[in-house]
Amino acid sequence: MHCPFCRHPDSRVVDSRTSDDGMSIRRRRQCPACGRRFSTIETASLSVVKRGGVVEPFRRDKIIAGVRKACQGRPVSEQDLALLAQRVEETIRSTGSSEVDSHDVGLAILPPLRDLDEVAYLRFASVYRNFASIDDFEHAVEALRAARVGHARAGQVETDASAVDAGETDA
């Protein structure tokens, strides 16, 4: 690491700590030539490979901008969008790969968006999955309804199990 003051090609790490989000490391460095101190922040790089083969750095703001269009007129706050983008980035980073296909980024957006707002999910999915007819929408709505019923049943099973554990049976 070059010293930003005297451009000396080396520096010594004085202190290291993880940042608040745990995704980067802040290092305090000292230049052996001029003795001045400076900070650096290190993050693991994550790149997105576009359809045309172009590689660009992953950016949360691009996730937010794309999802914001689907959320127009919906009760979704900027904080909700920021949390969604964070969940997407965490999902992608959990794969352990430093390069991810743009299609995989879109797939990672769908589940948290479905949890956030079903209408926005349908809007985004209709463009992302290239819905060609009303039948495609109907299938997507049916899948949402099935997932909702599945969640309700899972919640009921948990409630029933809690009642049994607590000794609250009707018998």
Automatic annotation (TrEMBL):
<feature type="domain" description="ATP-cone">
    <location>
        <begin position="46"/>
        <end position="136"/>
    </location>
</feature>
<dbReference type="GO" id="GO:0008270">
    <property type="term" value="F:zinc ion binding"/>
</dbReference>
<dbReference type="Pfam" id="PF03477">
    <property type="entry name" value="ATP-cone"/>
</dbReference>
<dbReference type="InterPro" id="IPR005144">
    <property type="entry name" value="ATP-cone_dom"/>
</dbReference>
<keyword id="KW-0547">Nucleotide-binding</keyword>
<keyword id="KW-0067">ATP-binding</keyword>
<keyword id="KW-0479">Metal-binding</keyword>
<keyword id="KW-0863">Zinc-finger</keyword>
<keyword id="KW-0678">Repressor</keyword>
<feature type="region of interest" description="Disordered">
    <location>
        <begin position="1"/>
        <end position="22"/>
    </location>
</feature>
<keyword id="KW-0238">DNA-binding</keyword>
<feature type="compositionally biased region" description="Basic and acidic residues">
    <location>
        <begin position="7"/>
        <end position="22"/>
    </location>
</feature>
<feature type="zinc finger region">
    <location>
        <begin position="3"/>
        <end position="34"/>
    </location>
</feature>
<dbReference type="GO" id="GO:0003677">
    <property type="term" value="F:DNA binding"/>
</dbReference>
<dbReference type="InterPro" id="IPR003796">
    <property type="entry name" value="RNR_NrdR-like"/>
</dbReference>
<comment type="similarity">
    <text>Belongs to the NrdR family.</text>
</comment>
<dbReference type="Pfam" id="PF22811">
    <property type="entry name" value="Zn_ribbon_NrdR"/>
</dbReference>
<keyword id="KW-0805">Transcription regulation</keyword>
<keyword id="KW-0804">Transcription</keyword>
<protein>
    <recommendedName>
        <fullName>Transcriptional repressor NrdR</fullName>
    </recommendedName>
</protein>
<dbReference type="InterPro" id="IPR055173">
    <property type="entry name" value="NrdR-like_N"/>
</dbReference>
<comment type="function">
    <text>Negatively regulates transcription of bacterial ribonucleotide reductase nrd genes and operons by binding to NrdR-boxes.</text>
</comment>
<dbReference type="GO" id="GO:0045892">
    <property type="term" value="P:negative regulation of DNA-templated transcription"/>
</dbReference>
<keyword id="KW-0862">Zinc</keyword>
<dbReference type="GO" id="GO:0005524">
    <property type="term" value="F:ATP binding"/>
</dbReference>
